[in-house]
Design goal:
heterotrimer; A alpha/beta; B alpha/beta; C mainly alpha; A: alpha/beta; four-stranded parallel beta sheet; 41% helix; globular; B: alpha/beta; Rossmann fold; six-stranded mixed beta sheet; four-stranded antiparallel beta sheet; 32% helix
Chain lengths: 290, 265, 336
C-alpha cells in the first residue's frame, strides 16, 4: 500500500509522449504545472511564450526578463543542484544538450522526473526548439506566431544584406584570457554570415584560442567583444584593443562591445543580436533611418 | 663443542666493492665473542649478515648447528636477537610498549599480549633495571637507558644468541660498565651467547672469551684477548703507535694509544 | 602494567564504539541538512518508515543525500587509512595517501576520460583508476630491487612522478575548451555529489576487504616503526609486508579517488590527530582512522554544501581550510 502511494505521488500524470530534440521519446504530463528550466535560454523562451506561470525554478544566470530573477535557483546550468531541483517537485524539466551535465540529467530521470532535452545548434533548429517547447507547454499557437515573426525578421535582414558590395572581416571575442572566438559550428558564426560579414575565426574548432598576434595577423575590419557585464575587465580589454591602431579595425575605430547574454544565448533575443550586428557591420544600409 | 655460530667462507660485496671476504670462524655456545677492528673493516656488515638482516652472497652460516637458510624469518627471531645502536628518530612508543614488541616472534599476527608475555616483559625489565622507567617515552631517555631498554626487548625474544652492534658507543663511563656487566650476567645466568661489535679495544679485552680482529673485510687474528692484542698485530692493523702491557686488573692486555708528543725521537 | 590483552581489546572496542557513534551522528546530520528544510526526525523517518514519509523528502534522502553521505563515509575512511599506512611504511609524517603518484596518475586518467567525452561511470572512473595504477607501476619499477625497502627511494619517486604529472595536467587544462574544463576543475578539487547508491555499494564492496587486510597487518606496522633492520630481526618479512601494504593501500586509494576526485588533507591530518589522542599503536589507529576519517569528511562535505549561499564548494576546499591550520597546530603540539 505504502509503495503504491509512493509511486503514485512520485510519478506525475503520464498523459502524452513527446519526442525531444535528441530523438528520445519522453513521457510528459498533459498539462505541466511545475516546470524547471535548466538553462537561461530556456527560461527566456518560456517567458517569450507567455508560459511563465508554469515555471517554478531556473538556473543561476537566468536574468532575463525581469520576472525570471525572482524564481528559485537550482545551481548553474553547467553544475546543476540536484537536491534543489528535486525539492521543487517538478513534473517536467527542460534541459539543453550543450552544457547540462549528462550525469545529472540521468540521475533526474532515475528519480522519475521527466526531462525534455532541446538542442538548438543554429537559428533554424532554435526556432524548432521554440516550437517544440511551445507544443509541450500547450502554447503551440503562440509558438507558431513567435517563430513566424522571427522568420520575418531574418528575411528582412537577408534582403538588406543581399545588396551589399563588400563583406567586412569580423573577429568576435568571447573570452578575455585567453582570447577565444567562435568557429563555424556556432551561433555567432551564423550571425556574422547572415549579417553580411566574414568570420575570421571560422574553422573546425568550435571555440578556438588565439594569441594577440594571431588576431593582428588576421587583420579584422571589425572587432566585437561580448561582455557579461559592464565589468572593468572587459572595458580594459576594449581599451587595449583600441590602442592597436595598426589593425584595420583599430584604424577604422570599429571596435565594439555587446551584451553577451544577447549574443550567446539560443533564445529569441538572438534576433536582436542579428539586427545589432548587421547595423554594426553595415551602417550604410541604415543611413536612411530604417 | 656445541657451536652457536659456524661461519664458512662468508662473502659480501656492496656493488663491486667487497666488504667481507671469505670469512670463516666459529663461536661456541655461551661465549662472549667480540668483533673489533678499524672503521670500514666491515664489522657492522658482518653482524648484520649473522643476524640474517642482510643476505649473504657467498659462503655458509650455521646458527645453532643448522643452516641459517633453514630457519624461517620468524623461527630465526625466536633463537636470535639483534640490538642496533639506536632506534629511528621519532620512535613513538613507551618503554614497556617497546619491550613488549620483543615478544612478537612468539605471538600471532595481531600481537595481542598474553599473561605469559606480560610476565616475561616484567622479568626482563627487572633484569636490565629499566622497570622504573616503564611508562616513559623511549626518546626521552638517556643513551644508556635506551640501550638497556633495547636489550630488554631483545631478551623478550628469549633468544639463545644475542647480537649487538656497538652497544657502548657514545655512552658515558658508568653506562658502559653497566652494559658490560649486563652481558656477563646474561652469560652467567642464562647461558646466552653474546656476539658484539665494539670499537673499544680495552673494554673488549676485559670480558671477551674470544676476539675477532677484522680489517678490510678479512680476519687479521682470532683468539683470546692475550693472543690477539699484541703489539705488532695491533700496530699494523690500526696503523698507529701503540703500547701494549698488562692491565692492573689482572692477566689482561692493556692497550695505550701513543700520541706523537710521547714518542722518543 | 596495563598492557594486557583483555584491556587492549576492551580499549579497542570502546574507542571503536565512540568513534562509530560520532560517525553515526555525522551521518544523521548529513542526511537531514540540505537546501530542503527538514528535521532530523523526518529525514530519518524516510529511512526507517518509508511508507509514512513525505515522498519528496524520501526521494531527496534516498536518491541524493544518502549516496552522498555514504560516499563521504567511504572516501574519508579510505583516505584516512591510506595516510596512516603510508606514514608507517615511509616513516615520514608528511606522507599522505596521494604521495605515491596517485594524485597525478588518477588526475591524468580522469582528464583524458573527460576529454574523450566518456560518461562518468564506468568510463571516467575506469580511466582514472587505470591512470593511478599506471603511475604506481612506474614508481615500483623505478624503485625495483632492494631499494624498494629504502623508503626514501619510494618517496622520491612518488614526488617526482606527481610533479611530472602536474605539468601534464596543466598542459591538458590549457588546451581544453570551456564546458569540459569545468568538469576537470571540479574533479581535481573533489566531488562527492556524483555517485548513486549502486556505485557506492560497488565501491564499498571493493574496499571493505582492503580494510580488513590492512588491519591484519597493524601490528606489523608497529614493528616497522623500529626500522627495517629491527623489524626483520623480529621475524617480519619486510619485503612481503611492504609490498602487500603498498599495493593494497594504493589500490584502495586509487579506487576511491576515481569516484570522488582528489579530496586532500583527510589522509594527512586525521592520522596525526588520532595519534596525538590515542597513542601510536596501529591496532587501535587502524579502526580509529576509518571511523574518524569518515566522520571528518561527512562533516566537511556538509559544510561544503551548506555554507555557500548559491551552489556548493568542492569538499576538498573545506578539508583544506580546516585541515591545514589543524595540521600546523598538531605539528606544534608534537614538538613539545
Amino acid at each position: 500500500m505504502a509503495v503504491i502511494v509512493w509511486l503514485a505521488s512520485a510519478l506525475p500524470l503520464m498523459a502524452k509522449t513527446a519526442e525531444d530534440q535528441l530523438g528520445r521519446e519522453i513521457q510528459i504530463p498533459d498539462d505541466p504545472q511545475r516546470v524547471v528550466a535548466l538553462a537561461p535560454s530556456i527560461t527566456e523562451i518560456i517567458f517569450a511564450l507567455g508560459q511563465q506561470e508554469r515555471l517554478k525554478g531556473t538556473t543561476q544566470f537566468s536574468n532575463y526578463p525581469a520576472g525570471a530573477a525572482k524564481l528559485p535557483k537550482v545551481g548553474s546550468y553547467v553544475r546543476l543542484d540536484l537536491e534543489r531541483i528535486v525539492a521543487l517537485h517538478p513534473d517536467l524539466c527542460i534541459a539543453i544538450k550543450d552544457g547540462n551535465p549528462k550525469e545529472t540529467i540521468e540521475r533526474l530521470q532515475s528519480l522519475n522526473i521527466p526531462v525534455f532535452a532541446v538542442n538548438p545548434r543554429n537559428l533554424e533548429t532554435m526556432m524548432q526548439t521554440i516550437q517544440r517547447v511551445g507544443d509541450i507547454l500547450n502554447a503551440s499557437v503562440k509558438a507558431k506566431t513567435l517563430v513566424q515573426a522571427m522568420r520575418g525578421r531574418i528575411q528582412r535582414v537577408d534582403a538588406l544584406v543581399a545588396s551589399i558590395e563588400q563583406r567586412p572581416r569580423v573577429f568576435i571575442q568571447i573570452g578575455i584570457s585567453p582570447i577565444i572566438s567562435a568557429g563555424t559550428n556556432t551561433f555567432i558564426h551564423e550571425l556574422i554570415v547572415r549579417a553580411g560579414g566574414i568570420n575570421v575565426a571560422a574553422g573546425q574548432k568550435a571555440y578556438p584560442h588565439f594569441s594577440r598576434e594571431q588576431v593582428l595577423a588576421l587583420a579584422p575590419d571589425v572587432l566585437i567583444i561580448t561582455s557579461m557585464s559592464r565589468s572593468g575587465a572587459f572595458k580594459k580589454a576594449e581599451a587595449d584593443w583600441r590602442r592597436l591602431i595598426d589593425t584595420p579595425a583599430g584604424l577604422g575605430k570599429r571596435i565594439y562591445t555587446v551584451d553577451s547574454d544577447v549574443f550567446d544565448r539560443p533564445s529569441p533575443r538572438l534576433l536582436d543580436a542579428l539586427e545589432t550586428l548587421t547595423r554594426l557591420l553595415h551602417p550604410e544600409l541604415f543611413e536612411d533611418g530604417s | 663443542m656445541k657451536s652457536a655460530f659456524a661461519v664458512n667462507h662468508l662473502s659480501y660485496a656492496y656493488g663491486s666493492q667487497p666488504v667481507v671476504q671469505r670469512l670463516s670462524f666459529s663461536i661456541a655456545r655461551g661465549e662472549i665473542f667480540i668483533i673489533i677492528g678499524p672503521n670500514g673493516a666491515g664489522k657492522t656488515t658482518l653482524i648484520k649478515l649473522m643476524a640474517g638482516i642482510i643476505k649473504r652472497q657467498r659462503g655458509r652460516i650455521d646458527v645453532l648447528q643448522k643452516s641459517i637458510d633453514s630457519y624461517s624469518q620468524k623461527k630465526l627471531a625466536q633463537v636470535l636477537a639483534y640490538v642496533p645502536q639506536g632506534l629511528p628518530v621519532g620512535f613513538p612508543f613507551s618503554v614497556e610498549e617497546t619491550v613488549l614488541l620483543g615478544r612478537a616472534p612468539h605471538q600471532k599476527v595481531l600481537g595481542l599480549a598474553s599473561a605469559e608475555d606480560l610476565e616475561i616483559v616484567r622479568q626482563t625489565m627487572a633484569f636490565t633495571e629499566v622497570d622504573h622507567l616503564a611508562r616513559r617515552k623511549l626518546d626521552q631517555l638517556s643513551g644508556g637507558e635506551q640501550q638497556r631498554v633495547l636489550i630488554a626487548r631483545a631478551l623478550c625474544q628469549q633468544p639463545q644468541v644475542i647480537l649487538l652492534d656497538e652497544p657502548t658507543a657514545s655512552l658515558d663511563l658508568s653506562h658502559q660498565i653497566r652494559i658490560i656487566d649486563l652481558m656477563e650476567k646474561l652469560k652467567a645466568e642464562k647461558g646466552v651467547t653474546v656476539v658484539m661489535v665494539s670499537h673499544d679495544v680495552n673494554l673488549a679485552s676485559m670480558y671477551a672469551d674470544q676476539l675477532l680482529l677484522l680489517k678490510a673485510g678479512k680476519i687479521v687474528r682470532m683468539g683470546t684477548p692475550s693472543a690477539v692484542l699484541n703489539f705488532e698485530t695491533l700496530e699494523e692493523t690500526y696503523n698507529c703507535q701503540l703500547l701494549v702491557d698488562s692491565s692492573p686488573l689482572g692477566n689482561l692486555p692493556r692497550v695505550t694509544l701513543v700520541p706523537r708528543k710521547f714518542l722518543k725521537s | 602494567m596495563n598492557l594486557n590483552s583483555e584491556h587492549h581489546i576492551s580499549r579497542l572496542a570502546w574507542l571503536s564504539l565512540i568513534l562509530l557513534g560520532v560517525l553515526l551522528i555525522a551521518i544523521s546530520l548529513g542526511l537531514s541538512i540540505g537546501p530542503t528544510q527538514s528535521g532530523l526526525r523526518s529525514a530519518l523517518a524516510t529511512l526507517f518508515s518509508p511508507g509514512e514519509s513525505d515522498p519528496v523528502l524520501y526521494r531527496i534522502v534516498w536518491g541524493i543525500r544518502l549516496p552522498r553521505v555514504l560516499l563521504a563515509t567511504i572516501v574519508g575512511a579510505t583516505l584516512s587509512l591510506g595516510g596512516l599506512v603510508f606514514q608507517a611504511l615511509l616513516r615520514n609524517p608528511l606522507a599522505e595517501p596521494f604521495i605515491l603518484g596517485v594524485s597525478g596518475g588518477s588526475a591524468i586518467g580522469a582528464i583524458i576520460g573527460i576529454l574523450l567525452g566518456l560518461s562518468r561511470f564506468p568510463g571516467i572512473c575506469f580511466t582514472s583508476f587505470l591512470g593511478s595504477l599506471g603511475t604506481l607501476a612506474l614508481i615500483l619499477i623505478m624503485s625495483t630491487g632492494k631499494s624498494i625497502l629504502r623508503k626514501d627511494a619510494l618517496l622520491l619517486s612518488g614526488v617526482m612522478v606527481n610533479a611530472f604529472c602536474s605539468a601534464i595536467i596543466m598542459f591538458l587544462v590549457s588546451i581544453t575548451q570551456d564546458a569540459r574544463l569545468h568538469n576537470i576543475i571540479f574533479w581535481l578539487m573533489g566531488d562527492l555529489s556524483a555517485s548513486d547508491l549502486p556505485q557506492v555499494a560497488i565501491l564499498g564492496a571493493i574496499l571493505i576487504p582492503c580494510f580488513v587486510i590492512v588491519f591484519v597487518f597493524s601490528h606489523a606496522m608497529n614493528l616497522l616503526m623500529m626500522g627495517k633492520d629491527m623489524a626483520l630481526s623480529m621475524g617480519i618479512n619486510i619485503r612481503a609486508v611492504t609490498l602487500v601494504l603498498l599495493i593494497v593501500t594504493s589500490f584502495m586509494v586509487s579506487a576511491t579517488v576515481s569516484f570522488s576526485g582528489l579530496v586532500g588533507f583527510v589522509g594527512l591530518v586525521i592520522p596525526h590527530l588520532l595519534r596525538l589522542v590515542l597513542g601510536p599503536d596501529h591496532r587501535i589507529l587502524v579502526p580509529a582512522s576509518l571511523f574518524g576519517g569518515a566522520a571528518y569528511l561527512v562533516l566537511c562535505d556538509l559544510l561544503a554544501r551548506t555554507l555557500p549561499q548559491q551552489g556548493e564548494m568542492p569538499a576538498g576546499v573545506i578539508t583544506a581550510l580546516i585541515g591545514a591550520p589543524l595540521f600546523i597546530i598538531l605539528l606544534k603540539r608534537s614538538r613539545k
